[in-house]
Amino acid sequence: MNSTRDPLAAPVSSAGVRIGIDVGGTFTDFVLSDPRDGRLVFYKEPSTPDDPSRAFIVGLKALLDQAGLEPQDISVLMHGTTIGLNAIIQRKGARIGLVVTQGYRDVLEIARSRMPSSFDLHASKEVPLVPRSRVIEIAARFSSKGQMTLEPSEAEIEQVAAQLSALDVEAAALVVINGYTAPQAEEDIAARLSLAAGVPVSSAAAIWPEIREYERTLVACLNAYVQPLIKRYLENLREGLATEGITAPIVVTASNGGSLNVASAMERPVETILSGPASGVMAAVRLAQAAGLTDIITFDMGGTSSDIAVAKAGSPALATQTYVGGLPLVLPVVDVSAIGAGGGSVIWVDPHGIIKVGPRSAGAKPGPVSYGLGGTEPTVTDCYVALGYINPAGFLGGRMSLDAEAARAALAETGRRLGFDGSPSEIASRTAEGALALATTGMASSIYKVLAQRGLDPRDFVLMPFGGAGPTHASLLAEEIGLSHIVIPMAAGTFCAQGAAAADLRRDFVRSLRLPLEGIASLRLAETFQSLTRDGMDWLDAEGAGQARNFEHSADMRYAGQAYELRVSLPGADLDATRLADAFHEEHERIYGFRDAAAAIELGTVRLAAIGITPPLPERPIAVPTSSTAVKGARSIFHKGAWIEASVLDRAALRADLRFSGPAVVEQEDTTVVVLPGWSGRVDALGNLHLEKVR
Amino acid sequence: MTLDPVTLEILNNKVAAVTEEMCVTLQRTGRTLYVKETADFACALAGLDGRFFAYPRSIGVSGFVGLECAPTIEVVGDLEPGDVILTNDPYYSHGLATHLPDLQVIAPYFHEDRIVAYGWCFVHCSDIGGRVPSSISPTNHEIYQEGLRIPPVKLMRRGELNGDVALFLNANSRTADANMGDIRAMLAALDTGSRRIRQIIAQHGTETLLDAQAELTTYAEKKARAVLGRIPAGTYRFVDYLDDDAVSALPVRLSLALTIGDGTIHLDFTGSDPQVAAAMNIPSRGRPHAWLTLRILAMIHTLDPTAPLNAGLLRPVSITAPAGTIVNPDEPAATGVRHAAAIRVNDVLNGALGLALPAVMPAASSGTVIPVVVAEPNDRGGRNVQVVEPMIGGTGARQGVDGIDGRDSGISNLANNPVETVEAELAIEILRYGLRPDSGGAGRWRGGCGMELSFRILKDGTNVLGRGMERLLFRPWGRNGGRPGLPGSLVVNEGKPGERWLGKIDVLDVGAGDIVTFRTPGAGGWGDPRERDPASVLSDVLNGFVTIEGARQSYGVVIVSDAVDEAATLVLRAKCTSEERVVDFGPERAAWDEVFDAGAMDTLNAHLLTLPLARRQRYRRDIFAKTLGQLPEGFPRAAADEQAKADARDDFVRTVASLKG
């Protein structure tokens, strides 16, 4: 809870050069922003998965060379990493132990007692992060009111510590039942255990004092599980950078769309594990805002799957119920939902002659048939190639050529198994268009569902595609859903790095109160917010945040006796009971369509987000194109059963005032934009490509 | 087929997604615990035949895909746009509803003056009146005690609420406001379905939608037949028992002859007990009802997860469920806790399928769901009533795989309650909520462990309810040499003065300081325990799922200082005698079967069905009392000597034989 000023966290100057670095599976992306001349420089370096810091350092040096800058010009490095996430998914984290209140050794085994499927007799439950043999019980407990009802004696601490030492663990987590009511007391027990056992012991309540023992246990275990790995990585990175003369502070992006400094990231790495997708969404939200758009659906279509996120009024929706490697996570994270197929999703035919797309993916190897790397099953990407959406000679800016004939042959074979008649060429086109329609239907259905959970209508939103295939597939998806506006930013391929470069500092704080909203509740709420704000201020100071700060308040409330709580955003920390009640009634009416003015209200978990605002990246007015003509030529694309002539445009040559109509294909370095008939295109002053449905 | 394979799959995808979006809408706007947390609701789309052509896969109650809307729609007669039908009565709706708290609504979806589909939803409402709060009690013996019966009526007429119906509803429930909230949520879900159906028609046309309804069910049927075609043809018999019927101590028999052949499956429940004078009857109306076919669906889905979820899956399934039995009761049998019997129906389906597919089907799961409830006096002179935990056990082992500890999604897949939220609501202290070592049936693959919940009462005048306790007597059976799991139990103040071992309870009175401990059964094992890899036994011991003593006794594995003593293990395993049984029901069931001969039981149950409903139960009790009177009190839990059992059996067989003619 307590943050002390970290000597490593030098204040981040808003005047210097900021560099965003996103380490992905294939490429490490760099975005450099120099506020002195408003420049943005992009760079890509192939990733080095065995030691990600290698590509980081090599690429950073190349980027500096390209920009003509020196190491000392850098004011901050903003870094997104998936090391923690990968360790959890592959269950390759540290060997950790868990200490729990006696009687609760099975907290991870039982979890919430649900199976992943009630229809699959062969389904198995998730593999617990800590096997039962490394779970130790301790005589420590609080009551629900926060009294310590079982206080561990010195002998008890010694005995548990001895057991812990015997397990040969790198780290441990401590969870005391009702610890959320007394986080400081639990942290003290953790400190005593840590001292006696000689291993770091993280207190679950200190990290995340929210009611619900299983979920809180997981937060602490996940933290301990990835901590040694991330710590080693960041230390190596800092050393490696230092030998290159780069001593700028490193800030690590977080799953909530914000960021934290290296010291915090080493202490609470669990906050960083979903930062990759969060950064991409944050970049999209910022670019949309610069273009005057506040309500967007981001659409990230990659090789294996597609993801969406929703932003309203310029802020992305956060979730406090998400899954990481099959385990629930209750920390607030940018809400990213998988909606179906990616470019590598395999198209196949079941024994009854019905077509299917995915969920299997051909991955990068063997990859789609058209890659010529040994893939024999057609994929979604092969459909783009077969239908003329993608220029086989111009893939990845011409660095890779695709075998369109092989793709068409494979699709023709699939079509024959579907019973289609005609020439191989006709069958291939028909199959490809059918497969894309099916993939699109799956995505659209998922979007309806995701938005229905929030009571939103997708047609009120602008679609913002990114990722390798997002812009290619976007107009098919928009047509299916009934969206009329798509915005495709420049350089959508380095989105996550851009998101990192612009990330605010942000940390979420919680405290579960559980009080009736009468009498002292509003006083307790104000006190709690004060205390959380102090923690937030201390943290921001320690992070070296500037004076531009923001605090967001919310509380979970419910009608007494109701089984579920509703999260209510609050206008401030100091609200009397009447205003609290009003805020709750209003939100309840918005979500459920009614209010119960006579019912008593209960206050549950109180939440505060402490935000240190990072200045936005400079807006980059579109450069005057070097080439005089945007139209490179024309080619046929297959649409609604026929080949039609589409003009081919060069994205780099599109001027701000240019307008054009579909059918068209816009080619850019990292992706291809398909503009269907009935859609028009234009480029705004910032270089964003807008596609609009012609009414 | 008239639709091409692309269009059909697109429609397959869309209509299933519509039902899921309906569910999401219902859950978001619903008001009660059942909707929000336990997700005891569902939405689907029915074709003109009233059967579901689309059903959600990932949200809501999964088992109701086989329900039929047609009888309910027929009762109401002509429908107009904006009409919504409401019913909850198992008899009037011919099994669409299966107990009164499940409010069912159906809306016709019109396009150009003709019905093109029906939307359907149900929610389990908090209370629909009747003798007890929440309307459900195992000891109800007539449906009239279970609350307001709503025959199919128009809740909405041309988009307007039918005020008379609303008056009846509100006057007959302890939770009228909450019910109306959930009804509104269902109406919102029906609207969502209507909107999406209109969209599908705009994109694909009415004829395509109608063709898809027929062809998607045919497609599912083909997939089901393909799966059934892989099962060896033959007739497989399986009998299992409920410990008792909650109003008497007599076990309740469920008998199944399952016949597979030519891609079809026939379920014959002849020989099952007559309907009981308690609330666990399953109102199937003699059809292949959802509650009688759940395991079949799960089996098909397990072997082909790509099969679309719709009524076509059940087309190859036929059934014989004699009228007047527990699986097809006559009006006015009570049905409130029909899921208690359905758990055991699941077991006989699982058992019979396992005889046909030994490599696929597991041994018995723990077979019980106990919502442990505490009711304590509050400051306002009333009572706080709250579920502590829904207690379940584990799943059975199967060939090659151990069972799962402390989870069982067989009949429902409910989430538990965080201990901390329970302690914040109730004056109890939960001392232990964990797995129960040594409870899983031994086997080459071990059955899943049962669970233990132990809590201290902090307030005088508290009641504890444990409805649904089962398998305290007859154990979850093991397969192919695997042993049964340990039975469940309930004890107050264990190891303390005043220790009380209790059987089933309805309502238990306790005071401050009392400690109540529920233990659920372990699930059955699979294969000879002596063949279990000693390394797996060691791992179980180190993890605490099996004790050192359990390893020695059940597996013949000797563990010393965290390692297997291989020499001692060899010696011990050589000494163990083998008792290879295809199904090992445990000693209590074995003793019961020795006396109550299977053939005689079949004959008795056939005879009972010829008697007037009013006389059956008394007649049956008398026959059993006569035989049991010759055996030790507490039989079959209490052992009887061989001679006593042989005599009792002769007497029983003679009695039954004398009934003929």
UniProtKB/TrEMBL annotation, chain B:
Q: What Pfam families does the record point to?
A: Hydantoinase_B
What GO biological process terms does the UniProt entry carry, in alphabetical order? glutathione metabolic process
Please provide, alphabetically and separated by semicolons, the GO molecular function terms listed in this UniProt record: 5-oxoprolinase (ATP-hydrolyzing) activity
Q: Which residues form the Hydantoinase B/oxoprolinase domain?
A: 4-529
| Gene Ontology CC, one term | cytosol
Name listed for the protein in its UniProt record? Hydantoinase B/oxoprolinase family protein
**The organism's taxonomic lineage, starting at the top:** Bacteria, Pseudomonadati, Pseudomonadota, Alphaproteobacteria, Hyphomicrobiales
